[in-house]
Structure formats: structure tokens, C-alpha cells
Design goal:
The chain has 443 residues and is α/β, with parallel strands linked by helices. It is built from 13 helices and 16 strands. It has 2 domains: 152 residues, Aspartate Aminotransferase, domain 1 (Alpha-Beta Complex), CATH 3.90.1150; 266 residues, Type I PLP-dependent aspartate aminotransferase-like (Major domain) (Aspartate Aminotransferase, domain 2, 3-Layer(aba) Sandwich), CATH 3.40.640. Bound molecules: pyridoxal-5'-phosphate (PLP). The site of pyridoxal-5'-phosphate has 15 residues, from helix 5.
Length: 443
């Protein structure tokens, strides 16, 4: 998750002495954090359903689904069973020259539920890596097409595609701190973040900058990479499906591939299985990860059209040049298959629609607060955007004291709970957001 917040220096209320936390403070570096930070860290002993149980026995209702992942909640009997079954057969086997049912069945399933035209699946270990793979696929495709000069990318400001060097080069230059990494990041192009809101049309003017960039640079452009409809870690904002539709048409017009990064949006979060469906488009390449395994194991996949995989395969070097050691891990594939099965057979649309309604009503009264700039909801994502960045040590402690796990970043306080959350539990989350902000415990 991307936070460009400097570590705060204000004093956090101290947690009870704990050997785990002591050792954590001495040796463990957490995501996007300072080892000198005063932001408290909490030790979790177990998690079940939508509840995290801390080492000291307190229970927190989870509003984050562990960063989009745990769509079915925690300690899910069906997912536990899938891993246990597979463990009895094999935990892992190399994927070079060998294959197995969990990987084959998962790839088949992914193709079945993905937008039309995506047919070949390349498995990997994490979202960022699946983005690197998508970028390499695009470059190798154009090389095979006799256009080796097409090696650059366009992306959108406020976009986030991961933390590895290639993924960073297409993520927002400011929140991604490109100035800090100028020597190693490839120079790519950025179109403004779409201004047309979700549910609204997108005017010619609102997509003009993207069009101009494609027009001017298509000869060196391999692909446009974007998060369809929902820009996640770069700002938690929702944009017009019409923009996406027009972007796809422009890519076709200028001979540039479209890579859809569905790592955050995939598997129902935005109200569709994949957010591309809002626009009725099929990308040339698509990345999935995060909730792919229901949050159980790290796994990601890059899907592409048969035309791309055939073209890459038919030309020198007659191979796609990538192959992670843990590619197609059988445990991860098994639990992913079971997670998708649970989702598709579990009336997910009704669940997400219900969460959407409850988030809308539950967060509504935050609008009246002076420090709130905007409240927005799409699918099972609820966002309260403040006028100023929150005070992390204070607000983090306040949420835990209120019995909820909500992790804001920058100006954003947001909820994306597991789909199994009940109305009452959701109410505890939305009430906690209002109360904490109303009490000024974000300052
Ligand atoms: C989280 C995320 C990534 C990176 O995935 P990791 O598994 O953290 O490497 C890439 N793109 C989007 C849209 C994401 O939300």
C-alpha cells in the first residue's frame, strides 16, 4: 500500500509491554513505514470471520479485508480444507516442464470468468510481479511484431501498480516518489487522472490529454496500463466507465495494447467480477492478485489474448522470458480455485450490493463534518476523504480503542470489508469512522 506520509512525530499512547512488540520494534520493517515511527503496531494472535483477535485478547472488526484480499473473511472452513487436501498431495513442485491439476483448473477458471478474448494465463507470486510480467509481455509482443521500438508505457496519474522498479515506473510519479529514483526508473508517460466521475459520461475534452499522448508517442508505446474504474492506493477514487471505454478505443486506434490492472478490483469488489465489465471492454492483458486466493496465500496471474501469446511464441527468442521459482504453487492454486468457487456460488452480487447500500447510509453523516472533503462509495468500497492528512498515531489508536481495524492513509479513511460482514458489524465500522472523526481523533 502506498503512503507518502512522512512519519509522524507525535506521541502515541503506549501499548502494554509485550515481547513480540518489543522485538518487532527492534528488528522488523513494516510496509511503507519508518523504523522510528510512533505509529503503533498491534500483534494479532488469530483471525476468524471478520474478527481479528489481538495477543492481549481484544477483538477488532476488520474493515480492510487485509488490503482487498480476505473477501470471505478469515479461517474459512472451505479454504482451510482446500489447502489441507492439497498439502497431502504436494506443497510445491517446479513448473518448468511439469504441471498439475490445481494450476490447470485455476487457469481454466480464470479464462472462463475473465472478459472475452483473454485466453492464456501466466501465474506468478504477487501483484507487482504480475505487472512486471504484463509489461514484459507487451514489449515482447511488439518485438515479435517487428516493432522493437515500442518499449514505453502510458499510465494515469494517481495510479498504483506496485512497488517493484518496473511497476513503480508506471505508478503516480508523486506518491511513488519518482524524483528519489530518477536514475533507475524508466521514463514513461502520464495522462491526468480521469476527472469524469463514475456513473457519468466522459466528454471529448476529458480524455483529450490521453488522446494527445497516444497520438504523439504511439510509435514508442507498448501499452497503456491502468486500474479500471477504481484507482486504489493512489487515491481511492472512482472514475467513469465511459472513460475506460474510450481509452480502449483509442488504444486500438493508435496500435497500443491495453493492460488492465485488476489486482485490487478483481473478484467482485467494485460490484462486478472484474471492473472492466462496467465498461464492457476486454483488455489485451489483465493482471489479478490480492483476493485471488481469498487472502490465504500470495498468488497473482497475468492473462493475455491468444494473439499475444501466439505472436510472442512464434518469434525469436521463441519463448516468453519470465519464470518465477514458485510459479503455479499448488497450495496457492488450490485455495484460489476454492475461493473463486465460494465467491461464484455464494450470491456475491447480493452481498456486495447490500454492503454498498449500508456504506452509503452509514458514511452519509460524515459529510456534515468540517474536515471532510468528500464521501464516496462504489461496490464494497467506502471512502471518506478528508481535507488534510490524518495524524496516524492518534487515529490508528482511536480505531483500535473503538474495536475496529481501519487503516487510513494520507487524507483517506476507507472501508473495504470482507463480503461476509453482517449489517450490524458494518454499522460498527461506519459508526467508528464517524465517531473518531467527530471526536477530532484524526488530528
Ligand atoms: C496492491 C496492488 C498492486 C501490487 O500488488 P502486490 O501484491 O502488493 O505486489 C498492483 N496493482 C494494484 C492495483 C494494487 O492494488
Amino acid at each position: 500500500m502506498n503512503t507518502s506520509q512522512p512519519p509522524s512525530t507525535s506521541q502515541a499512547p503506549s501499548e502494554a509491554d509485550s515481547p513480540i512488540l518489543d522485538s518487532d520494534r527492534r528488528h522488523v520493517w513494516h510496509p511503507y513505514s519508518s523504523t522510528r515511527s510512533e505509529v503503533p503496531v498491534f500483534a494479532v494472535k488469530s483471525a476468524s470471520g471478520v474478527r481479528l483477535t489481538l495477543e492481549d485478547g481484544r477483538q477488532l472488526i476488520d474493515g480492510m479485508a487485509s488490503w482487498w484480499c480476505a473477501i470471505h473473511g478469515y479461517n474459512v472452513p472451505e479454504l482451510n480444507a482446500a489447502i489441507n487436501r492439497q498439502l497431502g498431495n504436494m506443497a510445491h513442485i517446479m513448473f518448468g516442464g511439469l504441471t498439475h491439476a490445481p494450476a490447470v483448473e485455476l487457469c481454466e477458471k480464470l479464462v472462463e470468468i475473465s472478459p472475452e478474448g483473454l485466453q492464456t494465463v501466466f501465474l506468478s507470486d504477487s501483484g507487482s510481479v504480475s505487472v512486471e510480467i504484463a509489461m514484459k509481455m507487451a514489449v515482447q509482443y511488439w518485438h515479435a511484431e517487428g516493432k522493437p521500438g515500442k518499449q514505453q508505457f502510458i499510465s494515469l496519474r494517481k495510479g498504483y501498480h506496485g512497488d517493484t522498479i518496473g511497476a513503480m515506473s508506471v505508478s503516480d510519479p508523486e506518491t511513488g516518489m519518482h524524483s528519489l529514483f530518477t536514475g533507475i526508473l524508466a521514463k514513461n508517460f502520464f495522462a491526468p487522472s480521469p476527472e469524469c466521475a463514475f456513473g457519468e459520461p466522459c466528454s471529448e475534452e476529458q480524455i483529450a490529454d490521453l488522446k494527445t499522448l497516444l497520438q504523439s508517442h504511439h510509435q514508442t508505446l507498448a501499452a497503456l496500463i491502468l486500474e479500471p474504474v477504481v484507482q486504489g492506493a493512489g487515491g481511492m477514487s472512482f472514475y467513469s466507465a465511459d472513460y475506460l471505454k474510450q481509452a480502449k478505443a483509442l488504444c486500438e486506434q493508435y496500435g497500443v495494447l491495453l493492460i488492465a490492472d485488476e489486482i485490487a478490483t478483481g473478484f467482485g469488489r467494485s460490484g462486478r467480477i472484474f471492473a472492466c465489465e462496467h465498461a464492457g471492454i476486454s483488455p489485451d492483458i489483465m493482471c489479478v492478485g490480492k483476493s485471488l486466493t481469498g487472502g490465504y496465500m500470495t498468488l497473482a496471474a497475468t492473462l493475455c489474448t491468444k494473439q499475444i501469446s501466439d505472436t510472442v511464441s512464434d518469434q525469436p527468442p521463441f519463448a516468453f522470458m519470465h519464470g518465477p521459482t514458485f510459479m503455479g504453487n499448488p497450495l496457492a492454486c488450490s485455495v484460489a480455485l476454492e475461493s473463486i468457487h465460494l465467491l461464484l456460488t455464494g450470491d456475491w452480487q447480493k452481498k456486495v450490493r447490500r454492503i454498498e447500500q449500508r456504506l452509503i447510509t452509514g458514511l452519509e453523516r460524515c459529510r456534515q463534518l468540517d474536515d471532510v472533503a468528500e464521501v464516496r462509495v462504489l461496490g464494497a468500497i467506502g471512502v471518506v476523504e478528508l481535507k488534510q492528512a490524518v495524524n496516524m498515531p492518534v487515529i490508528q489508536q482511536a480505531f483500535v480503542d473503538a474495536g475496529v481495524w481501519i487503516r487510513p492513509f494520507g487524507k483517506l479513511v476507507y472501508l473495504m470489508p470482507p463480503f461476509i460482514i453482517t449489517d450490524d458489524e458494518l454499522k460498527l465500522l461506519t459508526n467508528a469512522v464517524f465517531d473518531v472523526l467527530n471526536d477530532g481523533k484524526h488530528r
